[in-house]
Amino acid sequence: MGRIICTRPTGWILELDITAYFDSIVREQLMEMIGKRIRDGSVLQLIGKWIQVGVIDEGRFLVSETGTGQGQTISPLLANIYLHYILDEWFEEVVKPRLRGEAHEIRLADDAILCFHYREDAEKVKNVISKRFAKYGLTLHPEKTRLVEFGRYAEERAKRRGKKPSTFGSLGFTYICARSRRGKFTVHVRTMRKRLSRSLTAIGRWCQEHRHVPVDQQQKTLNAKLRGHYQYYGRPTNFPCLWKFYRGTCRLWHYWLNRRTRGSRLTWDHYNALLRRHPLLLPRICHPGMKQ
């Protein structure tokens, strides 16, 4: 995403947020789309049965009339097919030829970002895309779907007004206008505050539930959780947020180890000695950055 924004003329970003996407897919229209590429009746029948099967939620068997069931194995594939015809193909073949400037789409599952050179193009698409989605049973969230001025020129204009350039979020990251060490425009990312808070809450809940498990086993599991976090969020410009997550995990582990037994307090000196014997994985960058 950052590469497109940095290398192509981008001035405006349209964030798309689909309300309850997996539950809103119209099955009949989805099957029509699948039928464009698959002619085997037995395969189509199998997919149809797969879509209509219910799900078990907290011991209850639930069956719905719409959607693909987000927990099903095939759901991500079917959801991608649905949006391919609704958004990808439409944007490439119908929308882009009618625009004045360049436009690009970046999508992963139901998370989509549209990049535009000119504001008039972005507003034109924003005005029609809700109607396009409504034809297929989908609704765009009125508050989370927004048009943001973003890019090298947006940064300059914001500075002239004495303001910070706008940011936008996608896939757990907040995207920020910035400058490289050489002074060139670039895009930095940070872990979204809500995602960081949610991840630490999950760590705290796990530490609470497993505080009586042997320390070496706790260390092993916590390091696996830290490793997974770093592998996703480990971008070069996101190191401060990785460090916050690491320090937050250390504090939470200390808090719940300290509550294992009543009366005996785990001081920070003792906890630091424990960390030397059972170290937690330090933050690491797992994805290379763009060359500036």
If helices are DSSP runs of H or I spanning 4 or more residues, what is the number of helices? Answer: 11
Task: Name the poorly predicted regions.
Answer: none
What class would the helix/strand composition place it in? Answer: alpha+beta
Proportion of beta-strand residues: 15-25%
- For the report, how would you describe the main beta sheet? 4 strands, antiparallel
Mean of pLDDT? 87
Counting copies of identical and different chains, the oligomeric state is: single chain
Order of H and E elements: HEHHHEEHEEHEHEEEHHHH
List keywords for this structure.
292 residues, alpha+beta, four-stranded antiparallel sheet, 9 strands, 49% helix
Q: Can you give a write-up of this model?
A:
The chain is an alpha+beta fold. 49% of the residues lie in helices and 15% in strands. The chain contains 11 helices and 9 strands. The strands form 3 sheets. Strands 4-5-1-6 form a 4-stranded antiparallel sheet, covered by helices on one side. It has a 3-stranded antiparallel sheet with strand order 7-8-9. The radius of gyration is 24 Å and the shape is flat. The two termini are 15 Å apart. The mean pLDDT is 87.
Topology:
Elements: H1 2-7, E1 12-16, H2 21-24, H3 27-35, H4 41-52, E2 55-57, E3 60-62, H5 75-95, E4 103-108, E5 111-116, H6 119-134, E6 146-149, H7 152-160, E7 168-170, E8 173-179, E9 185-191, H8 193-209, H9 215-233, H10 239-257, H11 268-277
Antiparallel strand pairs: 1-5, 1-6, 2-3, 4-5, 7-8, 8-9
